[in-house]
């Protein structure tokens, strides 16, 4: 049985003060051994504050990106080694906003994924189709390409230490959640792609759904057999809605 997971992606929506308050509220609410793993991907500059707040708790700290290089002359970049110094346990890799707004591609995403694996940080590999790809019937093809590049560079065994986030680009921040059936269909496809290399790894791989998840839509999504939790943007900015989503996971 896979353990469910819910991860907040705060993006650039929080101030330092509000991030501290929100994280303390989350930590207090999940101080009991939670029914699911709970993670928060914070903006880089708040990671030291957040590391202090999550210390000794079961909330996992994550970042929203990392460099595709180990170290060197890459002004403005943050490496996996730097994140691991602050106790980051998770990192988003290939979020749609990075791919489509900042030109990250399958190869550079795979390099970032590999750096996370090498430094013992669990990458949350984000994959998903654009509206155009969906309308043209190319959803599976787009996702297969995103997965295949990572598998060929990092190897299938790396997926024992990774999480996959299915985030249809058209659903992120749009208020338009994929239906539970639409999401399940793609989650099952992702699992089958991994299973074609290793049925054992596919069975234990956690695949999270992201894209306008709200407390109202979470229970139906999380009830699906291949949906193991969620990646939450806007609804994670409010303590109550984020915790309601955490409570909606399968136990
Ligand atoms: C995200 O950015 O990863 C995300 C899922 O955002 P939202 O929940 O706001 O669609």
UniProtKB/TrEMBL annotation:
Subcellular location: Cytoplasm
Gene Ontology terms: cellular component: cytosol
Keyword vocabulary terms for this entry: Cytoplasm, Gluconeogenesis, Glycolysis, Isomerase
Chief localization: cytoplasm
Active-site residue numbers: 95, 167
GO molecular function: triose-phosphate isomerase activity
Family as reported in the entry's similarity comment: Belongs to the triosephosphate isomerase family.
Assembly, per entry: Homodimer.
Protein name stated in the entry: Triosephosphate isomerase
Upper classification of the organism: Bacteria, Pseudomonadati, Pseudomonadota, Gammaproteobacteria, Methylococcales
Gene that specifies this protein: tpiA
């Amino acid at each position: 049985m896979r353990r469910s997971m819910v991860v907040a992606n705060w993006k650039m929506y929080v101030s330092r003060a509000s991030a501290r308050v929100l994280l303390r509220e989350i930590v207090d609410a999940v101080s009991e051994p939670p029914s699911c793993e709970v993670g928060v991907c914070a903006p880089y500059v708040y990671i030291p504050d957040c590391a202090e707040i999550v210390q000794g708790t079961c909330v996992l700290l994550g970042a929203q990106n990392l460099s595709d290089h180990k170290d060197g002359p890459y002004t403005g970049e943050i490496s996996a080694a730097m994140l691991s110094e602050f106790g980051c346990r998770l990192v988003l890799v290939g979020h749609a906003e990075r791919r489509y707004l900042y030109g990250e591609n399958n190869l550079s995403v795979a390099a970032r994924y590999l750096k996370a694996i090498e430094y013992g940080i669990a990458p949350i590999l984000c994959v998903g189709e654009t509206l155009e790809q969906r309308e043209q019937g190319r959803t599976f093809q787009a996702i297969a390409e995103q997965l295949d590049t990572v598998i060929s560079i990092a190897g299938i065994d790396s997926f024992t230490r990774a999480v996959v986030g299915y985030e249809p680009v058209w659903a992120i921040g749009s208020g338009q959640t994929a239906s539970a059936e639409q999401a399940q269909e793609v989650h099952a496809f992702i699992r089958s792609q991994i299973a074609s290399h290793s049925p054992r790894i596919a069975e234990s791989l956690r695949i999270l759904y992201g894209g306008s998840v709200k407390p109202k839509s979470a229970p139906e999504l999380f009830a699906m057999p291949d949906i193991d939790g969620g990646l939450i943007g806007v609804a994670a900015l409010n303590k109550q809605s984020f915790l309601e989503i955490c409570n909606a996971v399968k136990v």
